[in-house]
Design brief:
Strand order of the largest sheet: 1-2-3
Number of helices: 1
Largest sheet: 3 strands, antiparallel
Structural class: alpha+beta
Distance between the termini: 38 Å
Oligomer: single chain
Order of helices and strands: EEEEEH
Shape: globular
């Protein structure tokens, strides 16, 4: 499972079963309501943070190169 997007205090979670669902807050684990798969939120948050930092860095490099 992955965090697809963060909307305010809510998280949109994407599961490997092609289901998406909203979680109000991340507890000790996250369970897909469709297939029952569970995931640790710490792993999902780490992956989401690393992915979004890379995107922000690439955007900064692009804007510097464009000027």
């Amino acid at each position: 499972m992955v965090i697809d997007e963060k909307l305010g205090n809510d998280y949109i979670i994407g599961c490997e079963c092609d289901d998406f669902f909203i979680v109000k807050r991340l507890g000790p684990s996250v369970e897909c309501p469709h297939c029952g798969k569970t995931e640790l939120p710490s792993a999902m948050l780490t992956q989401w943070t690393l992915t979004h930092e890379d995107v922000e860095r690439a955007g900064s490099v692009y804007s510097i190169a464009a000027t």
